[in-house]
């Protein structure tokens, strides 16, 4: 149960922040957003504010902001469909009723022949009461009525496709950017809670170079070879650049300076099937301090470390496709993330926040991959429009996006099945 709640918390946080970025910048650009959804599948909760319906859906496998004119929405009217419509005093359609869950009166029934909700804004059909063919204009403020909800029909001026490239770019980029911001905020929060490491020794590890050299608790490292040390970051940076060469360590102990020699240990951690991360350690835990400024620096550095690691692994993933080393074991879907979240949640809340921070930057980077179904692919269309002063042909764009959706669906199915086989069918 703890693992499930932890997964819902992490999933909800990451998806909500990502989609909130899209929503905020879409609204700033004047783009109408009929729905903001967390999850996929059947709706289990909804709340309407202004023109946006906020929903929580059953399946925790994603989320979306439905932006008018973005290509995500589909015209619900098909030729031959019978719908009810309500008109205003000017004869314009104010409501297109798609089910019988309503209490509207003075409505008319049409058998649909044609409709356009992008440019011409009309519905054409045969009036079932007069048996006459009519072409009705859509009012400036009009709605689809479905499952008791009013879904506003966006006029052309409030559609994504009519906006200039820069607002489009910001709207699309905002989702990944908010994930990067979330990682930074979580890393700063963690740094505030656990404190910032200093260049003072808090604990010396057993069987370590530090213990052998005589380093003691309370010692403050002030110099490594000829380089002055002011912080724990200075120590890490120097050790990484120096490698496993012997170094002279100068410490302050009881008001006096002492110098000792030691050789750092080389520590290798496997972060993927083919990549190993190397660090150099002398074997001590730093004393922590609590301040108002250091957590911001530590949080930023940790965010950059996560981003660098994820980006490196992503490059390795794409390289493996062409070198023949690719395996679906290199990917994790919702099932794999659930299992990993479950194991981390057993360690406590802080490790869970750390996992959320890493997954957030991962979602941000992954969404910027130029695959048509992702934000990165849609940004490519916007860049094309900015360079050539015209949008991509709508039919071509739909074909490319459709192919991207099919590809992503195939990958998701394969990854999910691989996760199920790996964790439950052994």
From TrEMBL:
Cofactor(s) needed for function: Zn(2+)
Gene name per UniProt: rseP
EC number: 3.4.24.-
Name this protein carries in UniProt: Zinc metalloprotease
Keywords of this entry: Hydrolase, Membrane, Metal-binding, Metalloprotease, Protease, Transmembrane, Transmembrane helix, Zinc
UniProt key word Transcription regulation: no
Cellular localisation: Cell membrane; Membrane
Domain of life: Bacteria
Domain PDZ: residue ranges: 187-255
Principal location class: membrane
Pfam families: PDZ_6, Peptidase_M50
Organism (species): Macrococcus armenti
């Amino acid at each position: 149960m703890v693992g499930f709640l932890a997964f819902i918390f992490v999933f909800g946080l990451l998806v909500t922040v990502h989609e909130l970025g899209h929503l905020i910048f879409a609204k700033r650009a004047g783009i109408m957003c009929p729905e903001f959804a967390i999850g996929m599948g059947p709706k289990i909760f909804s709340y309407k504010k202004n023109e946006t319906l906020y929903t929580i859906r059953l399946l925790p496998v994603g989320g979306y902001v439905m932006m008018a004119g973005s290509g995500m929405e589909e015209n619900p009217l098909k030729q031959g469909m019978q719908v009810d419509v309500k008109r205003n005093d000017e004869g314009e359609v104010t409501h297109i009723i798609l089910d019988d869950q309503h209490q509207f009166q003075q409505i008319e029934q049409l058998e649909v022949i044609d409709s356009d909700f992008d440019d011409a804004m009309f519905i054409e059909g045969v009036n079932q009461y007069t048996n006459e063919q009519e072409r009705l204009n859509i009012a400036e403020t009009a709605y689809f009525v479905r499952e008791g909800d009013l879904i506003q029909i966006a006029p052309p001026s409030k559609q994504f496709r009519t906006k200039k490239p820069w607002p489009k770019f910001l709207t699309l980029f905002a989702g990944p950017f908010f994930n990067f911001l979330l990682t930074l905020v979580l890393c700063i929060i963690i740094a505030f809670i656990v404190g910032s490491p200093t260049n003072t020794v808090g604990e010396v590890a057993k069987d370590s170079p530090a213990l052998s050299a005589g380093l003691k608790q309370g010692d403050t490292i002030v110099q490594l070879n000829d380089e002055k040390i002011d912080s724990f970051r200075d120590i890490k940076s120097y050790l990484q650049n120096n490698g496993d060469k012997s170094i002279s360590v100068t410490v302050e102990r009881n008001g006096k300076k002492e110098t000792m020699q030691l050789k750092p240990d080389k520590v290798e951690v496997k972060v993927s099937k083919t990549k190993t991360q190397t660090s150099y350690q002398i074997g001590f835990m730093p004393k922590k301090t609590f301040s108002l400024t250091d957590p911001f620096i530590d949080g930023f550095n940790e965010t950059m470390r996560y981003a660098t690691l994820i980006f490196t692994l992503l490059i390795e993933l794409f390289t493996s496709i062409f070198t023949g080393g690719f395996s679906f074991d290199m990917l994790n879907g919702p099932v794999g993330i659930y299992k990993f979240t479950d194991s981390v949640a057993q360690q406590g809340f802080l490790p869970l926040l750390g996992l959320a921070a890493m997954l957030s930057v991962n979602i941000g980077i992954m969404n910027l991959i130029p695959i048509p179904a992702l934000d990165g692919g849609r940004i490519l269309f916007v860049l094309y429009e900015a360079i050539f002063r015209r949008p991509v042909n709508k039919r071509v764009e739909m074909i490319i996006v459709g192919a991207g959706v099919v590809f992503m669906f195939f990958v998701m199915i394969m990854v999910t099945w691989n996760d199920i086989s790996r964790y439950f069918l052994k």
